[in-house]
Design brief:
The structure holds 2 protein chains of 2 kinds.
Chain A: H1 3-9, H2 42-54, H3 60-67, H4 71-80, E1 83-86, H5 94-100, E2 106-110, H6 130-139, E3 145-149, H7 155-164, E4 170-174, E5 179-180, H8 181-190, E6 196-200, E7 204-205, E8 224-226, H9 236-244, E9 251-254, H10 260-269, E10 275-278, H11 296-302, E11 308-310, H12 324-327, E12 332-335, H13 342-349, E13 357-361, H14 365-375, E14 381-385, H15 399-408, E15 414-419, H16 424-433, E16 439-444, H17 459-468, E17 474-476, H18 483-492, E18 498-502, H19 508-517, E19 523-527, H20 533-537, E20 548-552, H21 558-567, E21 571-576, E22 590-595, E23 608-610
Parallel strand pairs in A: 1-2, 2-3, 3-4, 4-6, 5-7, 6-8, 8-9, 9-10, 10-11, 11-12, 12-13, 13-14, 14-15, 15-16, 16-17, 17-18, 18-19, 19-20
Antiparallel strand pairs in A: 20-22, 21-22, 21-23
Helix pairs in contact in A: 2-4, 3-4, 5-6, 6-7, 7-8, 9-10, 13-14, 14-15, 15-16, 16-17, 17-18, 18-19
Chain B: H1 5-11, H2 19-22, H3 48-51, H4 65-74, E1 101-106, E2 113-116, H5 123-143, E3 156-162, E4 167-169, H6 175-181, E5 182-189
Parallel strand pairs in B: 1-5
Antiparallel strand pairs in B: 1-2, 3-4, 3-5
Helix pairs in contact in B: 4-5
Function (chain B): Aux/IAA proteins are short-lived transcriptional factors that function as repressors of early auxin response genes at low auxin concentrations.
GO biological process, one term (chain B): regulation of DNA-templated transcription
Family (chain B): Belongs to the Aux/IAA family.
């Protein structure tokens, strides 16, 4: 059996189905004979050198490219890849991944598609971590780090991680669910080398287990403890003692059950913190009226290394001035849980000259955004969330705020902006003022809403963004949009990798423009838009290069999707039914399709049909 | 979408402060706040029987939570709530001042959950959310050997403990009164929910 055959059976894990570029650089004969000789021959030396060199290669895209050079490079790259990233847990099986990469120390895995966050997917669709946990336990007992996004993790999985991986150090769970405080308790009690436990926007069920008390006694290696999303009471005294015995702790993000008085005590214990999530930022109900308030300002002043501040989950704005001492050093400030006004924001933001990342609620209004624009000249990322996420005519932020930001924050790279109204003019202004934009996500909450000043669709605004922002890789569109907007995207959005579309477009042409025009497109999520089977067909040349395509409440039919499934054997075509749909309806509620080396998955629930 | 200038005039007062926009009303999110007659606010208190079309507590009720929602959906609703729009993550409710968290226990599920009653405007929203939350527990029980018939589903009666410690059927009182008085929720297996709907102390024990 020649080596080329072997090569074709296990393509690169990035699944680029490009033509086989492997050049045979083993012309001098290594590997083709002499299996019984262990002596060093010239190519072995070359491989050793290569191994040493490839250790320095960290970017996974570079590694994927290196693995395509030839068989020898493929082999060595596989040996030296220590961080394994899998963007879709169903694209490759745990077995296949562990067979190719044998020395992995860190695993980064993503599961459900993003639209699952918005209740567009029934629960229990899949993305179970369990088979991965078991496979890793056998293949990588030295595994140190696991980073999961949108996966279902059970308490048993947490126990597996803690018990079977003796050197386990880092667990990061983003938008995960399926576990509870009892799982956390087992995990922290057995994971002796733990440095990082970050629970971010995950749903943790309250089993009424005191997991904080389960950290082992004695000095802890903890560097990061993030649990602001955990909606359960915690044992504060135990937390206090834990922080006291964690000299390396740099990141601490508390949940809303920690009062400001308790925060004070923790800050005094850990002035070395660089990242702080403040918890509720209000006094507990039990605090007496006449009690002496601690010196919060002094506590913040003592945290000289603080660069990232968040929390404020139930903020009493009177306490805001406490953070003044740290504002000048802050590079990241997250007020997205703080319902504060422009006037409450101004004294803070006017001191935040170094701010690069700012998340905030639209309660600050356009006026607050103007204040941001006036001071934060170094701003790279802005997210403005709605206090009241309904479709309405009036909202506190509008094109005025966007215009101000575009004029004041010229280095802006990433923006997520929820609003009720927006004009093409403001979007065009941003496209010209902020040429470094990489991520542009505008959500005009009123569906199909045109430019309120001109009455026109929002085509020209988004068109300007793709034309002028030459580095743009991520785009989310909204408002009234015709096919023209998508024509612009197809023509100019040559670097776009992720595109989100909702309630937009007139016809199949819109989707065609995008599928034919955007060669870098990897993730396409569409809802409630009039795109049908013909549009779907126009992407056949490209689907193997994409991570996934999501289309819900569009105009797809079952036989149209079937055609795609037949034409593309390495694509898994899932039709997901909502509760009131019949199994044999021709109209497709939700299509979720993705490339995969494994064929149809075996854990699909009843409401999923794989064509 | 047609412009709705009439609404705009009515919604702002002299100071430009939009009090009416933030006023709590009964009604589904996304409904217009002011009707065309300019006067009555949509969602001002209606008789309870009009807001809820749930057949809770009927003797011959062989219905899952989901079905009761379908019933409600068929009744005339002024504006359809669009699922998942705007795309803001559901449980990352931001900036809400009041939170009314109550524990929810489901008979047979090993874990408690918590819901914030403040984020719902009606019984049907609460029940849909509970259904979403606990479908996975039903399945987990199946895996843990308890015999649950997935085809027919298990019938649960939503009950709650009020301020006085009495166990009541969810749906007995107007929504807002329920939110204020509810201390905890329990989804009881229908087979155990005998003699409910009365304000006397129940014979069964409290949540596990």
């Amino acid at each position: 059996m020649s080596e080329d055959d072997e090569r074709q059976q296990s393509p690169p894990s990035d699944l680029e189905f490009v033509s086989n570029k492997a050049r045979n650089c083993n012309a001098t004969g290594s590997g083709s004979g002499h299996p019984e000789f262990q002596s060093t021959y010239p190519d072995q030396v070359l491989e050793n050198v290569l191994e040493n060199v490839l250790h320095f290669l960290t970017s996974r895209r570079d590694r994927n490219a290196a693995s395509l050079v030839c068989k020898s490079w493929y082999r060595v790259e596989a040996l030296t890849r220590s961080e394994l990233f899998i963007g879709n847990c169903y694209a490759v099986s745990p077995g296949r991944a562990t067979a190719r990469f044998t020395r992995v120390k860190a695993l980064h895995l993503k599961g459900k598609p993003r639209f699952a966050d918005f209740n567009l997917m029934p629960p229990d669709w899949g993305a179970h971590f369990n088979p991965w946990a078991l496979a890793m336990a056998k293949a990588y007992p030295w595994l140190e780090k696991v980073h999961l996004k949108r996966m279902s993790v059970t308490d048993d999985d947490l126990a597996t991680l803690a018990e079977l991986f003796l050197g386990f150090k880092e667990l990061v769970l983003v938008c995960c669910d399926g576990f509870g405080t009892s799982g956390l308790a087992i995990f922290v009690s057995k994971c002796r080398q733990l440095k990082v436990l970050d629970l971010i926007e995950s749903e943790v069920s309250d089993d009424e287990t005191d997991w904080i008390s389960c950290f082992p006694e004695g000095e802890s290696n903890l560097e990061s403890l993030i649990f602001d999303c955990v909606e359960c009471h915690i044992n504060f005294e135990a937390l206090d003692r834990l922080v006291a015995r964690s000299p390396s702790l740099k990141k601490l993000k508390l949940n809303r059950y920690v009062s400001i008085g308790q925060l004070y005590r923790l800050m005094v214990r850990a002035p070395q913190l660089t990242h702080l999530g403040t918890g509720s930022f209000s006094p507990s109900d039990i605090a007496g009226q006449g009690d002496q308030e601690p010196d919060y300002v002094a506590a913040f002043a003592a945290c000289r290394s603080l660069v990232c501040l968040s929390g404020f989950r139930e903020i009493i704005p009177d306490y805001l001035p406490a953070i003044y001492p740290v504002c000048a050093n802050l590079t990241s400030l997250n007020f997205s849980y703080a319902n504060i006004t422009a006037d409450q924001l101004k004294p803070i933001i006017s001191k935040c000259h170094k701010l690069q990342t700012f998340w905030v609620l639209d309660s600050i209004c356009d006026e607050g955004l103007q204040a941001v624009a006036a001071t934060c000249k170094d701003l790279r990322e802005l997210r403005v969330f709605p206090v009241d996420p309904r479709e309405d005519n009036d909202g506190p932020v509008s094109e005025v705020g966007l215009q101000a930001i575009s004029e004041g924050c010229r280095k802006l790279q990433s923006i997520l902006y929820f609003c009720q109204r927006m004009t093409n003019a403001a979007v065009i202004a941003m496209s010209k003022n902020c040429p470094d934009l990489v991520v542009f996500r505008l959500c005009i909450m009123g569906r199909h809403r045109p430019d309120p000043v001109t009455g026109e669709p929002m085509d020209d605004g988004f068109g300007a963004i793709v034309m002028n922002c030459k580095k743009l890789t991520r785009l989310a569109v909204s408002g009234l949009l015709t096919d023209k907007a998508f024509d612009y995207i197809g023509r100019h959005g040559k670097l776009v990798r992720t595109l989100s579309v909702a309630f937009a477009g007139d016809s199949d042409m819109a989707l065609k423009y995008v599928l034919e025009g955007c060669p870098q497109l990897q993730k396409l999520e569409i809802r409630d838009s009039p795109f049908g089977d013909a549009a779907l067909r126009s992407g056949l040349h490209h689907y193997y290069n994409m991570r996934f395509l999501w289309m819900s409440s569009c105009r797809l039919t079952r036989h149209g999707c079937q055609e795609i499934a037949r034409a593309m054997p390495r694509l898994v075509v899932e039709v997901i039914r909502s509760a009131d749909e019949e199994e044999m309806d021709d109209v497709v509620g939700t299509l979720y399709m993705y490339r995969s080396l494994e064929g149809p998955r075996t854990d699909a629930p009843k409401f999923v049909t794989i064509l | 979408m047609s412009s709705e200038n009439g609404k705009r005039l009515l919604e702002t007062d002299a100071g430009g402060l939009n009090f009416e926009a933030t006023e709590l009303t009964l009604g589904l999110p996304g409904e217009p706040r002011v009707t065309s007659d300019g006067g009555a606010k949509l969602g001002s208190k209606r008789g309870f029987s009009e807001t809820v079309d749930l057949k809770l507590g009927d003797n011959n009720q062989e219905v899952k939570l989901g079905h009761s929602l379908q019933e409600a959906a068929k009744s005339p609703v002024s504006k359809t709530q669009v699922v998942g729009w705007p795309p803001v993550r559901g449980f990352a409710r931001r900036g809400k001042k009041s939170c009314k968290y109550v524990k929810v226990a489901v008979d047979g599920a090993p874990y408690l959950r918590k819901v914030d009653l403040e984020i719902y405007n009606s019984y049907q929203q609460l029940l849909t959310s509970l259904e979403d939350m606990f479908s996975c527990f039903t399945i987990r029980n199946y895996l843990n050997e308890k015999k649950i018939d997935q085809v027919n589903g298990i019938e649960y009666m939503p009950t709650y403990e009020d301020k006085d410690g009495d166990w009541m059927l969810v749906g007995d009182v107007p929504w807002q009164m329920f939110v204020e008085s509810c201390k905890r929720l329990r989804l009881m297996k229908s087979s155990e929910a005998v003699g409910l709907g009365l304000k006397t102390a129940p014979k069964y024990s409290s949540t596990n």
